[in-house]
Structures are given as C-alpha cells and as structure tokens.
Write a structure and sequence with these properties.
- The chain is an all-beta fold.
- It has two domains: about 100 residues, Galactose-binding domain-like (Jelly Rolls); about 170 residues, Sandwich (Jelly Rolls), CATH 2.60.120.
- About 0% of the residues lie in helices and about 50% in strands.
- It is built from one helix and 21 strands.
- The mean pLDDT is about 85.
- It is a single-pass type I membrane protein.
- Its main location: membrane.
Amino acid sequence: GAGGWSPLVSNKYQWLQIDLGERTEITAVATQGGYGSSDWVTSYLLMFSDSGRNWKQYRQEESIWAFSGNTNADSVVYYKLQHSIKARFLRFVPLDWNPNGRIGMRIEVYGCTYRSEVVGFDGKSCLIYTINKKLINAVKDVISLKFKTMQSDGILLHREGQNGDHITMELTKGKLSLLINLGDTKTHPSNAQINITLGSLLDDQHWHSVLIEHFNNQVNFTVDKHTHHFHAKGEFSYLDLDYELSFGGIPVPGKSGTLSRRNFHGCFENIYYNGVNIIDLARRH
C-alpha cells in the first residue's frame, strides 16, 4: 500500500528486505506503522547478509534478540545498535503485530560507508609481509583481521624464528587456536608451548574478527568480542622471530617440522599489523 509496506497475508513468513548496494556499517534502525492505518508491528527480528543468501541474526549479549516495535501507526521507535552491523542486505522479520490490524511497516536504516580491503585465498596461496625493522616494537605488537570461510581447517597466520620458535593461528574443526611454541625446550622447559582455543562453528561463511595484542609478556587473544588474557611468564620476550609474517599458510611446507597443516581457503578483510594495512600494501606493491 501507499502508506508503507503491508503484505497481503499477515503471518510469520513475511519479511522486508533492503539492498544497500554495498557493504555498509549500520548503526541504528527505526520503524513506524503503516500511514493512517491500524497496521503496525509490535516486535521483529533483524537479519543481515553480505550475499543475500546466507543470513545471520542480530544478537545482543549473545542472546537471540527481538526488537520491540510500535504501539501505534505514527510514532517512530528508534534503536541505536549496541554493536554495529557490517552488511549489504538487511531483513526485517515481523514476529507480532497489532491484533486489530495487519503487518504494516515504514523503516529507516542509519549508518555510513564501510571501508573494506578484502583478499581471497584458494587454499594454495599465502600472503607474506616482510616487516620493516623500524616498525618492530619490542614492547607492543598488534595484529587484527577479519576472516570468513566454509572450510573448518586452515592456517590464518604464521611467524617463526631461527631455532624453531613460532606463533601460529589456525582454524581446527571450526575453532580458532593460537599456538605459541618455544622451540628450545632445554632453555625454556616451563611453558614451552601455549595453546589457546576460542570460538566455534567459525566456518559458517560469516565474517569473524580476530585481534592479537602482545604487550611485554601480556597477551590478549580476542575472537568476536571474546577475549582470553594470559601471561607468557617472560618466555614471550625470548621468542626469536623473523621479520616475516605469513597470512593464509606456511610459505615453505614442512618448515615447522610438526606442521603438516592445510592453507586457508576463504577471505580475509582489513589485515593490520601495528597499524599497517597489509592488503592495501600488497595491492600497491
């Protein structure tokens, strides 16, 4: 109808979909009922997608979250999202509506353009970044990226040194593991290996964010807002690492003796190492 969206049949199978044309950072939504009618939605779900085929539901505090809708046709109910959504497509799915009317909605979406650098990996490739020695910071190291994949296993990040020391981040059975290995167990017998696993079902073809922060011997490992803090008891400072970071795989197969692991097959977005945009650098060079 002219007064907004009102499907011919009011039932739980109706939805209104928006194509924003490109991935956008969505920060808020607002709804009204149908203009000059008794049609309004009292609660709804919000779904989002990059492709328009594979949908994810907006959640708050990890619970399935229904938005409270309208109580009349004309008042605007505005929600600032607790965490922004980055997506091209949005779907509003009515759950309940005015019992004396039908489903009726007018909606508005608020947000801004989202700058995104994406690189695809085919399971045989990797991206190697040689770190500028001037950018090496003994006190602080920060790596951040997003990834999406349908494969349950694959190397996301690898860095190793001369004596077998290495840091590896890999997807194993849909979970993300950070492995810190001190090659020389004679010199550092305690804590020779640290292995932390976070997340599950990360092979769902949705974007997942990863952050590794290393300050002195304090390490923070974050996957999708879940953080594991740990102290490397001084060993971290002993790690003898090359000036080379490898994303998506290990450049020389068998370089790390025990690693017979597969390369990553999927996409990375916005890879940063200490503020350097790695994908942009790779494109320009």
